[in-house]
Amino acid sequence: MATTSRLIKKLDEAVINRIAAGEVIQGPWNAVKEMIENCLDAKATNILVVVKQGGLKLIQIQDNGKGIHKCDMDAVCERFATSKLTTFDDLSSISTYGFRGEALASISHVAHITITSKTANSQCAFKGSYSDGKLKEPVKPCAGTQGTQITVEDLFYNVPTRRKAIKSATEEYNKLYDVISKYAIHNSKTTFTLKKHGENAAIRTQSGSTVDNIQNIYGGEVSRELIKVEHHDEQYKFKVQGHVSNANYNAKKCILLLFINHRLVESSALKKALESVYANYLPKGSHPFMYLSLEIIPQNVDVNVHPTKHEVHFLHEEAIIESVQRVLENVLLDSNKSRTFLTQAILPSSFGVSQKEEEKPKEVEKIYDHNLVRTDSKERKLESFISSQSSDIITSDQTCNGTKKERKVHLKSVLSLRAEVESDLNINLREIFKEHKFVGCVERKFSLMQHAQELYLVDVYELSRELFYQIMLYDFGNYGSISLEEPANIIELAKIALDLPEIGWTIENGPKVELAQQIDIVLRSHAELLFDYFSLEIDKEGNIISLPYLLENYIPPLQGLPVYILRLASDVDWTTEKECFEGVCKETSDFYAMGNGYEHLDQHQEKDWRWMTEYTLFPNFRNTLLPTNSMANHLIKLASLPDLYKVFERC
């Protein structure tokens, strides 16, 4: 009888593990999600993620959690090795993120892993390197802080097909950004930081409120339109809370951040149900922002459905979805009753067209009213409706020397201050200022500008103060100088300042003459530093000879010079380098800010500040300013053409 060879063979253990790893780790973003969940299980309050090439070359996650004991380091990357489960029945009450012991094991089969960890009771940290779930060599003691640092290098180095299937590092980075953003919003008491290797942080949240983190990541436009959702259902034993956008906000696509028992999941059924509610409030093609957290008793939830745990099943699913749907309906209905609508006059699109030109037939594509956008710099500003006089270029008795000393700055204090500005950059605001159109001045401290189809009221004082502060940092030691026609005596300036009501001088402060002399002593003792780094020159007699020239065609309001001199002497910490430089830069930017010291102006000066606002400050807001997150509070959206047309559509 003829025999045949076996066709079915058991796969090699390494192949089995890599196939399993491919199910759990679909890409760098998935590996980061798994490790972030481990950090949160370890009660971390600070999580730092550093990536290179979208996570394909490097992923490094560091937390300040409980850490891993030395005796557990050998098993931490083995499959189905976990501290969360003992028996199968434990699955019915699981409340942690990770529980099957597959995350680190799977990563170790498709990448090189190094883990450094320290517990609170350990004298030192311990470090181990892993491959295919096993330690490469015995664990070694090393220096380290409490918590765990996991370094993943060359992801999918041994799975070339998976590596080739990944389209681009940028796309993977965007997925990473999305995952970390969502966990940062849900875990508002934990600080999250995401940065590309060698670059500044792209995400940096602080321990605070959920709304603050939504504003930090998604922008002020979303955070200003949020409604709080909170409901406890006794019948089906679940709670729902979160924040959703009201009927004033709409986006091009639906954004749903859904957490069930604190695990980031997806639910197409719930998403579809909630969008159907918004369909009654938003125009066609518009979508909401929703962040919802459902807490269901663990016995009713099956988390062991998918290898990546991004899908869960739970009892009474349809009933719970309907209940959440009703909750959303109620909060939207309540918010709709108190809605307010802002109005604006439609700005004219052209002026001065002759009759002959109007009669010429033109074949142009029709632009509907709600899509009108200011695009021509020749369009009339608000001032043209007030006065027909043209603005003159600034004329002043001061002479400006704009020659800059080319000096490279390597001071750690200055570089640190620059880094603080860059780490707080708001990308959404940067885009708005980059593409804005100046509309006109409302008053000295406020102006109007337009971005796309939206009209904004801008706090010029606050923005110009930040602009000059950044110029002080980035042109540090290289300013030109404004030479005063007549030297200004420090003691006399100090006396003038002390006489001002806003300074709040009292008898208990001491005689004004003595205070003025003390101010003179402080500034003259630092005259060399002020002149060398800040182009603020003080002569031997205690007179101000020159001021820094920070911006072409911009002269600071000299009415504010006395207060500037007073605060420079009294409010700056002259004992520490970083605090000193920061203090001088901030006091100088306060002095230079538009709207400070412009209380009493003659007719010529009135034209000067309007000209400087439109032709000096706003172009620099567009090209130079790095808008920080706090500046969102100084930009108020007054009206949006699409929103106004939605109002009329409902009438």
UniProtKB/TrEMBL annotation:
<dbReference type="InterPro" id="IPR020568">
    <property type="entry name" value="Ribosomal_Su5_D2-typ_SF"/>
</dbReference>
<dbReference type="InterPro" id="IPR036890">
    <property type="entry name" value="HATPase_C_sf"/>
</dbReference>
<protein>
    <submittedName>
        <fullName>DgyrCDS5311</fullName>
    </submittedName>
</protein>
<feature type="domain" description="DNA mismatch repair protein S5">
    <location>
        <begin position="214"/>
        <end position="333"/>
    </location>
</feature>
<keyword id="KW-0227">DNA damage</keyword>
<dbReference type="InterPro" id="IPR013507">
    <property type="entry name" value="DNA_mismatch_S5_2-like"/>
</dbReference>
<dbReference type="GO" id="GO:0006298">
    <property type="term" value="P:mismatch repair"/>
</dbReference>
<keyword id="KW-0539">Nucleus</keyword>
<dbReference type="Pfam" id="PF13589">
    <property type="entry name" value="HATPase_c_3"/>
</dbReference>
<dbReference type="InterPro" id="IPR032189">
    <property type="entry name" value="Mlh1_C"/>
</dbReference>
<dbReference type="Pfam" id="PF16413">
    <property type="entry name" value="Mlh1_C"/>
</dbReference>
<dbReference type="GO" id="GO:0032389">
    <property type="term" value="C:MutLalpha complex"/>
</dbReference>
<dbReference type="GO" id="GO:0016887">
    <property type="term" value="F:ATP hydrolysis activity"/>
</dbReference>
<dbReference type="InterPro" id="IPR038973">
    <property type="entry name" value="MutL/Mlh/Pms-like"/>
</dbReference>
<dbReference type="GO" id="GO:0005524">
    <property type="term" value="F:ATP binding"/>
</dbReference>
<dbReference type="GO" id="GO:0140664">
    <property type="term" value="F:ATP-dependent DNA damage sensor activity"/>
</dbReference>
<dbReference type="InterPro" id="IPR002099">
    <property type="entry name" value="MutL/Mlh/PMS"/>
</dbReference>
<dbReference type="Pfam" id="PF01119">
    <property type="entry name" value="DNA_mis_repair"/>
</dbReference>
<keyword id="KW-0234">DNA repair</keyword>
<dbReference type="GO" id="GO:0030983">
    <property type="term" value="F:mismatched DNA binding"/>
</dbReference>
<dbReference type="InterPro" id="IPR014762">
    <property type="entry name" value="DNA_mismatch_repair_CS"/>
</dbReference>
<dbReference type="InterPro" id="IPR014721">
    <property type="entry name" value="Ribsml_uS5_D2-typ_fold_subgr"/>
</dbReference>
<comment type="similarity">
    <text>Belongs to the DNA mismatch repair MutL/HexB family.</text>
</comment>
